[in-house]
Amino acid sequence: MDHFLYRDGVMHAEDVALTEIAETVGTPVYVYSTATIERHFRVFREALAALDDPLIAYAVKANPNAAVLATLARAGAGADVVSGGELKRALAAGIAPGKIVFSGVGKTADEMALALNAGIGQFNLESEEEAETLSEVAASLGLTARVAFRINPDVDAGTHAKISTGRSENKFGIPHDIARAAYARAAARPGIVVQGVAVHIGSQLTDLAPLERAFTRIGTLIAALRGDGHALATADLGGGLGIPYDPARPLPPSPADYGAMVARITADWGLRLIFEPGRLIVGNAGVLLTRVIRVKPGSASPFVIVDAAMNDLMRPALYDAWHDIRAVVPRGERFDANVVGPVCETGDTFAMERPMDRVAASDLVAFMTAGAYGATMASTYNSRALTPEVLVSGGDWAVVRERQPVEALIAADNLPHWLVEESA
């Protein structure tokens, strides 16, 4: 569930009317609900109650806003990071270094040094070449890196091709069939302590069966690695559990069902389990609030042109992703419409022939389930300012990222000396 509900005919975020935020901050604007973030984290933690001290390492890439991270740090979350920038964000938000896992296929030597000096809990290695580099960096600093290899189990997650990560043709991890040899070589390297295994097969999974196949395969590998003499302590099972975007489609598996499956599969592993939920925690905790510029007649259905665009919310253009679209102040009427933004791309389309609340120019519209992979993927295409973000807590709210003025974009560009000289 989320905390975006109608009161007296107006959509609220918790106890704050979205009309109030729009009038004060302008549109488009992302709005997040603290109560929803906290509830989703609590529900996921409760779903893992049968496990012994699991680490919930929130996937920072889903929504890296400092206020969101601080909210989760207060709730007890760790962090899964995939860049030096995300690592710095997690540390700044108060997440303990020992609860941070560094994933990602392209860690640089500088990022490795940053993480080693911070004292993070684990590096998830994606290749033997990466293990070699990390060994060299750690040895040069006189430090030790605690590592796991990310295993590619060659399991089809059954999700969108662009967010599938566990098949043999994907760029992630090392092949399952070379893992034992890779672990043997890594254990012999200086500056490295092998402590675990890791797996993550994709995002927005709506079926537990692929996860169960992947975890079962990892369990077999864990037994083999122990037989080879490796003293394993952790197993990172990644994230990827889907959330409901389209209310007309069947609900994804619940966290409770997921937790029960994990407890059953891992019962004899004897390892501390790590989880990397992102979308599951923040997806339904945010909306993108936008205003209708005008309604334009179309050949079949009218075009509802809003002031949010593909640069603000990339998911529909990138993945053909579905977001529920609701009027903030519904008129009680419905129509079929094409919802589009003002960017000069046909791909700047949020929905076609969508049954939705009837809206007119100046009406406010909310794109639901926009708390994950929304603001964090935004760009300044068409010289559009980055969208501000607001966090609500009960009846209080605050701007947690200001709207970037276009003048700041222009000021960030530098003219080469020959153009400056010509204009002098």
What report would you give on this structure?
The chain has helices at 18-25, 34-47, 66-75, 84-92, 109-118, 128-141, 179-187, 208-227, 255-265, 279-282, 315-319, 406-411, 417-423, and strands at 4-7, 10-13, 16-17, 29-33, 55-59, 78-81, 100-102, 122-125, 145-152, 174-175, 192-198, 234-236, 272-275, 286-296, 303-306, 325-327, 334-340, 349-357, 364-367, 389-393, 396-401. With 424 residues, it is an alpha/beta fold. The protein has 2 domains: 4-31 and 283-411, Lyase, Ornithine Decarboxylase, Chain A, domain 1 (Beta Barrel); 34-279, Alanine racemase (TIM Barrel, Alpha-Beta Barrel). Helix 6 links the parallel strand 8 (122-125) and strand 9 (145-152). The chain is globular and about 70 Å long. The strands form 3 sheets. Strands 4, 14, 15, 16, 17, 18, 19, 20 and 21 form a 9-stranded mixed sheet that branches. The modification N6-(pyridoxal phosphate)lysine is found at residue 61.
Characterize this entry briefly:
The chain is of the alpha/beta class and 424 residues long.
